[in-house]
Amino acid sequence: xxxxxxxxxxxxxxxEQVSSQVQLGIDWLPxxxxxxxxxxxxxxxxxxxxxxxxxxxxAYLDANFRPGGDRLRLRAGAFFLPTSxxxxxxxxxxxxxxxPSALNSWLGxxxxxxxxxxxxxxxxxxxxxxxxxxxxxxxxxPVARGWSLRDHWITLGEWIPVDPEYVTSVSAExxxxxxxxxxxxxxxxxxxxxxxxxxxxxxxxxxxxxYGALFNWGTRFDIVSGEYTKGDWTLAAESGWGPTFLIxxxxxxxxxxxxxxxxxxxxxxxxxxxIRGDLFEAATRGRALTVAWLWNLPxxxxxxxxxxxxxxxxxVIVELRYxxxxx
Amino acid sequence: MSRTISLVLLLSxxxxxxxxTITVDVRDARGAGVADAxxxxxxxxxxxxxxxxxxxxxxxxxxxVPHILPIQTGTSVRFPNxxxxxxxxxxxxxxxxxxxxxxxxxxxxxxxFDRAGVVTLGxxxxxxxxxxxxxxxxxxxxxxxxKGRAQLPQIGAGKYALRxxxxxxxxxPAPVPLMLGASENKGLVVTIRK
Lengths: 327, 194
Description:
Shape of chain B: globular
Number of strands of chain A: 20
Oligomer: heterodimer
Number of domains of chain B: 2
Radius of gyration of chain B: 18 Å
Mean pLDDT of chain B: 82
Order of helices and strands of chain B: EEEEEEEEEEEEEEEEEE
Mean pLDDT of chain A: 95
Strand content of chain B: over 45%
Structural class of chain B: mainly beta
Helix content of chain B: under 10%
CATH architecture of the largest domain in chain B: Sandwich
Largest sheet of chain A: 16 strands, antiparallel, barrel
CATH topology of the largest domain in chain B: Immunoglobulin-like
Largest sheet of chain B: 5 strands, mixed
Order of helices and strands of chain A: EEEEEHEEHEEEEEEEEEEEEE
Largest interface: A-B, 39 and 30 residues
Radius of gyration of chain A: 19 Å
Distance between the termini of chain A: 21 Å
CATH architecture of chain A: Beta Barrel
Number of helices of chain A: 2
Strand order of the largest sheet of chain B: 7-13-12-9-10
CATH superfamily of chain A: Porin
């Protein structure tokens, strides 16, 4: 992927003038019951992170079962939590815009469960639960650095700066307390129409204490999301909220996190147009409006253009994406 | 929770005709029509040649279309991806175990379903996607409409077993024997557990 922008130096729309990124997904399917997946990522813009240029974004093993016509999927390893209504393409890529909402930018940048996930689907109902290690610093970025709208998926072992003194890492497991998540979803499918509602709770159970450059943030976060698709039109929205805390010299400081977005997207034969509105709040409030057009060309190339505005800043991104798959 | 489906078979055969049209109404215990049930008549005492037909199981808006696809044994099915995102289709049903690696567009080779049974499809990228391919040893099959009605046209005279498959049935009901060539009405009650 090659990307050029007008270059915004700070704030939610921070973006390098020119950047490039390569993602490689490797699937090994020894049988339809089992799949091993590794997601590698390399990029020119490391966002000033340590070990930010190259790394492993995901690595997991799936086992599928069909008990009594239902579906049970067990997943073990490091993976994205399946909450996003935007990041629905392979490799957790956003389907409607070039950069995801503030909510999913944060989840991509600071949350990567390393553990076990189970998802049970019975007709249109799905229940899922995750137990994971790591992610003790989950919650630092929105409060200390601020929300962002960018697709910087953190990799295992990467340290992203929160402020001049501290960093955040999904690999941070300082207090040996396992985090957990649970979700439930309903999916309805009719001719040419589908709808989905999902509730998710995330709790990293971090102790909020200082461990050198890694400061634990105890974060509990709920997400409600919905999606409605009819023909070529898609409406999608997510809203997340919850407290995060840290303890400094015995005093507990709590901040409420809130982030929401809603988008409407229409697909034509030649491409897809999307408008998305974002609201986000931690120490301060912000909002953003994004308009994107993705061309649908024959072959493997997908050009796209995206214009965003937030807090007086305007960002224009032009991107050329090449994707392929093969045995 | 249990649910009863009554299958009312209304068989009408012109006495002199060599081919018949069977109309089947599938209803639940409250009398409502059951949509998307597969009704098929399997000839008894004789085998029909394998189908050389083709069928399509599309993927639109992260949904398999149709949700239920009945085909005759031997049919080739193509799996075009009409979405602008990628899919990875698989089945580990005994009737046909296969997987299509991550793809866009239409895979070059169709999948041949050469064994009767029910195949449950899924997508490794999108857990929400699910569909069924019902492979039957007969060219005489149909899916019920929203009102629960299915028609099997152009059936030749002879002995058949009429069967019904529905995704939410815990057990497939016993087949209804049919001897085409004389007018008759039959009724069948099937109890399924959800």
